[in-house]
Amino acid sequence: MKALPFLAAGLGVAAGAALVVYFGADAVWRSLSAVGWAGFAAVCAIHLALIAAMGAAWWVLLPGTRAGVLVWARLVRDSGSEVLPLSQVGGYVLGARAATLGGVSATASTASTIVDVSLEFVAQLAYTALGLFWLVHLRPGSAVAVPVSLGLVVAALAAAGCFVAQRRGFAAFDRLVRLLGRGWADKTAAGAAALHAALAAIYRLRGGLALCFALHLAAWIASVVEPWLVLRLAGAPLPFGTVLTVECLLYATRSLAFFVPNAVGVQEGAYIVLGAGFGLGPEMALALSLLKRARDLVIGVPALVVWQAIENGRLWRRGRGGAPGVPRP
Fold it and tell me: Average pLDDT of 60-67?
């Protein structure tokens, strides 16, 4: 089973490469070249600003924590998810670990990650609903509207169940532990009780929860600026609402392909299919996808290198009898 993500990633890379060859590597390269280095730098800058906004959304859930720590942790989270052959959950673990190394307690880091991810998921649902509304406005008879609507309903029910589990699920767990008796159950109950208390403290921050959701929704909508700008620079401009629709459907597709690390191959194919419905050529669609991949590498690889250096430094000091180890979340 451990080899499955690598196999899926390998097949995705092969599929992406096949699409580039089929539609013409020269045509894809010309589309990329039209954006230019200045355009690529602008896209990277916009993306870093979005990461800072999402880090701020995480920070409002932990008053008193240094904002820079959670902005950095968010950068590590996204870098792990988009660069390493990990699932999204793997990225969440790396981000929580980075927050812990920055001085946040393991319990607070874990609890705030759970709530932040949940609120971002709800914000993505709102973002997808906005894209669906615009799709119906642009293409009233679109066959995609019905399955996307059904998917939204199912996802909303799943989100509601997630929040209920976070608020009520620990009570059932506590009762089970009491039935099991003492010993290992006591230690498990203590850890669960601490996490439950941390979650309850976060959920008491009504204003913080609302602001976290608003920042995530704003970041999702603002993320459309990146592909919109790329298309304008490449000489294939589309209206902002059209790009919003394509991006919403793209990320909905990526969510369905969660078992493929980084949605390699899936993103490229989805861009071609979705773009075709709005007049976007396959070579430009592939160029846009590849530019996003390059952006993730340029931002993510240095971030992961720095994070690994911090981890190695901590382990070296621990081996020399220096600073004690930081508990893992």
Answer: 92
Residue 278: CB atoms within 10 Å: 15
Q: Would you say 283 and 28 are in contact if contact means Cβ atoms under 8 Å apart?
A: yes
| pLDDT tier, 190 (very low <50, low <70, confident <90, very high otherwise) | low
- Separation of CA 167 from chain center: 23
Task: Please give the Cα distance from 69 to 100 (Å, whole number).
Answer: 9
- Burial (CB < 10 A; 0-12, 13-18, 19+), residue 172, is exposed
Number of H helices, E strands in the chain: 12, 0
State both tokens at 292: 């996003």
Separation of alpha carbons 139 and 117, rounded Å: 32
Determine how many CB atoms are found less than 10 A away from the CB of residue 70.
29
- Residues written for the chain: 329
Which token pair is 214?
A: 């608003």
Fill in the amino acid letter for 140: P
Return d(Cα 326, Cα 185) in angstroms, integer. Answer: 24
Predicted pLDDT of residue 329: 43
Backbone phi, then psi, for 3, in 5-degree steps?
-80, -15
How far apart are alpha carbons 14 and 9 in whole angstroms? Answer: 9
pLDDT band at 236; cut points 50, 70, 90: confident
The predicted-structure confidence for 131-141, as pLDDT tens digits, reads as follows 888 888 888 87
Q: What is the pTM of this model?
A: 0.84
pLDDT, tens digit, 9 for 90 and up, residues 260-286: 777 777 888 888 988 888 888 889 989
Query: Tokens 């439950």 appear where?
Result: 196
Amino acid at 215: L
Non-local (6+) Cβ contacts of 28 within 8 A are 20, 283, 286, 287, 290
Q: Which of 210, 249, 231 is nearest to 127 (CA)?
A: 249
Alpha-carbon span 174 to 182, nearest angstrom:
12
